[in-house]
Amino acid sequence: MNTKIYSKVVAGVVAIAIAAVGIFAMPSATYAQGTNPPSTPTAPTKPGDKEKYGEKLLERVKKNLAEMKANLVKANDVVTKAQETIAYAKSNGKDTTKAEAALATYKAEIAKAQASYDAAQKLFDTHPGFDGSGKVTDSATAKQTVTDLTKNLRDAQQTLAKATREFQKAAKQIRSENKDKVKPTATPKP
Questions:
Q1: Contact indicator for 70, 151 with CB cutoff of 8 Å
Q2: Mean confidence (pLDDT) of the chain
């Protein structure tokens, strides 16, 4: 009889220990700056901070413009390669209707992305609110310039990314539909 009581007590203690570990092991918020959470970042308040912040944003936009230009070049390279592949398939008597339609859609979306990029590049070249060296001359105008640049670049990036995903999806579908129609050839041996 003592063993029944002992096993119930042990089971109860184990259950309480497991519950305690579960409660105390729960993740809780930790703060690196004492016991108070860090405050929400605010706009620069010292004289000259807004200008420095605007200058940093303009530099970031400059970097993003360069990346977007490189992405557009890559997209146009894909178009060129796709056109060559379609021409080759067509010369071999393959039906390229779906591929041509997918490519036409992709090219149209690249043109939209290019237009957004061009608008951003034009605005960057004139950089209202900034002087020739990228220093802020008018805070309000500089803020609007950075906002417009960011919007145009975001539009270009989102348009190009969506178009690329859709083109890849269409190409994958076309390949899978034609997979069994293409007979593999033996690799020539030297």
A1: no
A2: 78
Q: Return the sign of the alpha-carbon dihedral for residues 3, 6, 10, 16.
A: positive
Question: What does the pLDDT look like over 75-131, one tens digit per residue?
Answer: 999 999 999 999 998 898 888 899 999 999 999 999 999 999 999 999 999 989 888
**Smallest Cα–Cα separation from 83: which of 22, 158, 91?**
91
User: At 67, is the secondary structure helix, strand, or coil?
Assistant: helix
Angle at 142 between CA 141 and CA 148, to 5 degrees: 90
- CB 147: neighbour CB atoms within 10 A? 11
* Total count of residues recorded for the chain: 190
Contact between 138 and 129 (Cβ < 8 Å)? yes
Contact in structure between 85 and 103 (CB atoms under 8 Å):
no
- In percent, the amount of the chain with pLDDT more than 90 equals 46
Q: Where are the domains of the chain?
A: 49-179
DSSP 117-156: HHHHHHHHHH-TTB-TTS-BS-HHHHHHHHHHHHHHHHHH
Helix axes 139-178, 49-91, angle to 10 degrees: 20
